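Project standup — Tuesday

K.O.: blocked on the structure for the chain from last sprint. Re-posting the sequence here as requested.
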Amino acid sequence: MGSDSSTTPDARRLLAALANAQARRVFAEISVGGAPGSSLSPAKLERALALLDQAGLVEAVETEGGVRYRIREHAFREALASLSSAPSASGVERFLTADGRIDRYPAREADRVEVLAWVATRVLDTGERVPERELNERLARFTGDVSMLRRYLVDSGIVSRMPDGSAYWPALKEDADGGP
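H.V.: unblocked you, prediction finished:
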């Protein structure tokens, strides 16, 4: 059951090992210098030690009297270092799922307008007019509630529409008379 000390502990494995009550007990006993697993059956002790060893938390040391286990001193530091340090999402991405769908609408109006403008630039070209059905198909890529997103786009002034809802187009700043 020798530990491969060249393997950097994986944070998930480490946490999974410590989530196991028996492995946690054995880890605690090893940390205080006691004999591990005195209250466990040999099979349960072996499973707990295997979990701890695979997680990189303990290592086996051969002694004259047999095998002794010790805590790998840098296991937690190495596991933390192995975690992805990907930067947190910023801008519009904060409100999108990994596949680019709207996860939630921002509470702050400026953020909400930014998200809506982002969607509008992806579904409508400048000067383009589209029927409601086509707009709905395009908006469906971003949300399950198409009518709400369409309403938000119109209410925010980012998208204009015919009074009867038959056509939609990107709103222009000076678009106050109902047409581009």
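K.O.: great, moving the ticket to review. Residues 92 and 118 are 8 Å apart (CA to CA). The first strand starts at residue 58 and ends at 63.
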